[in-house]
Amino acid sequence: MQELIHHPLAALIAVVTAGLLLGRVQVAGLSLGSSGVIFTALAAGHFGFSIPKEAGQLGLALFVYCVGLAAGPGFFRTFVRKGRVFAVLAAVLVASGAAATAIASLALGLPPDLAAGAFAGALTSTPGLAAALEAAPGGSSAVSYGLAYPIGLVGVVLFVQLAPRLLGASLEQLGVQAASASDGERIVRRLVEVLNPGVEGRRLSSLEPIAEANCQISRQLEGDKLRPVGPDFSLHVGQHVLVVVRERNLDQVVTYLGKISERAGYTLDAESERMQVVVSSKEVIDKTLRELRFLGRFGVTVSRLRRHGVEFVPKAGDTVEYGDQLTAVGERAKLDDFAAYVGHRQRLFDETDLISVGVGLMAGIIVGLIKVELGEASFQLGLAGGPLLIGLLLGHYGRVGPVKGHLPRAAHLLLQECGLILFLAAAGAAAGGGLGETLAAFGPQLLAVAAAAMLVSILVGYVAGRKVFGLSLLETLGAVCGGMTSTPGLGAITSKTDADAPVIAYAAAYPAALILMTVFARLVVSTLGG
User: Which domain holds residue 345?
Assistant: First the structure.
């Protein structure tokens, strides 16, 4: 046993494996996930196990770099468009949690390092823990994080389930209402008989009502088959054409062209296909789907959009960001044209450029080591800030020279998870030696501060969302989950409703909260330490 304790690699593997197993244990449908490693690491450190600090440093740099890559595409742009409402809400939520932490810690005599760890745990933010450890090196932030994390995890899940009930509503009913309100966004296909003599011999591009309705006429009836129209296609009275349009615009288009066709028994000469496309073209980034008019220009519809690991049905007013994964439906030839315009087909983005990862990490470490002189004091971003900043910039711009800011989803998740568990294992083991003393001296205070941070953050975020920003209940709940960086909280919502409003709000608030936690965790340390 002594040899095992003093063998760093064996200790690391044992701690990580045990932590991942612990993370899989579910209680009332909740599990710790990768954060289970912090608990086994604390226990291991308490019993004398040691893990090389270099493993933790590598894990920290890799983890925050991957976080930056994921958040970059949405973080900067969020503040200059409609999504800034959710970003500001996330900032209010995080700031209120930090203020509650500072006030409660001052009142209860909790040291700065423990306060910052409790703040990060209450908002379930590992990047916040990383910033706390760098701001208070050698402290016990990991201990307080481990104690506070379950409080934050359970608190958000309970809130999103109880809040609708207290208001006399249910997530299921809210989802049905949201679906009814968005019915007009559904894409419909109708065979229309052309009767309007005013369109005789005219091309589609010259018909303003068709363009305004974002309508696509993709096929015409020849015999008993619907065949694709060519580039020189023009309308004639008596034609039967296939109209593809949003349901709310259907009556407008049908009235303009003629009437719904009474013909039956026709078939398509080809079936529609699906294609996944990753957005990388500057021509489409930061534009709404309404502005891009994919249906009218290419004859394809975007049926799903995946962003920050969550997928939803996009609406016409939703903005496209770099790195978004679009699922498009249409004919093969038109899908190829669409993919060439928007970015790249998904499979072309599935190659991992490890050289770019290495160069990006090295640049981040170098930036983190640079000292900035501020009068008599100096400041540096460190391993938690340097790689994060470079990751944000690469994620935002897509690539800088030959260095790419994109990783395939599977590779990104693997590298981020590996970095996370290495960091948690080393941080927990280092703090575990003082676990008993910390709990004996500050156990009740830690729990009280964590509970205060969690409750204040959630309640302030909810009130701001509903009363200040005028968001719907579903949007507010999704934004609160994003501001608390709580994926389990979002999961509790989506398990009850298929509405996309909370998912969209979560995806907009999450990047801002992720980055702001690293800032406010440092502020907690500096405020209490001053």
Answer: 273-349
Instruction: Give pLDDT tens digits for 382-405.
Output: 787 788 888 888 887 777 888 887
Determine contact, residues 295/244, Cβ cutoff 8 Å.
Answer: yes
Q: Where are the alpha helices (DSSP H) in 217-313?
A: 250-257, 289-292, 294-298
- Structural domains of the chain, count: 2
137: exposed, middle or buried (Cβ count in 10 Å: 0-12, 13-18, 19+): exposed
CATH at 340: 3.30.70.1450
Render 432-482 in DSSP notation, one character per residue.
Answer: HTTHHHHHHHHHHHHHHHHHHHHHHHHHHHHHIIIIIS---HHHHHHHHHH
In this structure, the number of other CB atoms found within 10 A of the CB of residue 73 comes to 25
Do 195 and 258 have their domain in common? yes
Rounded Cα–Cα distance for residues 83 and 225 (Å): 45
Number of neighbouring beta carbons within 10 Å of residue 269: 10
Exposure string over 384-401, b if 16+ CB within 10 A, otherwise e? bbbbbbbbbbbbbebebe
In this structure, the strands spanning 372-374 and 377-379 are antiparallel
Compute the distance between CA of residue 468 and CA of residue 86 in angstroms, rounded to an integer: 12
pLDDT tens digits, one per residue of 196-224: 888 888 887 677 787 777 677 777 888 77
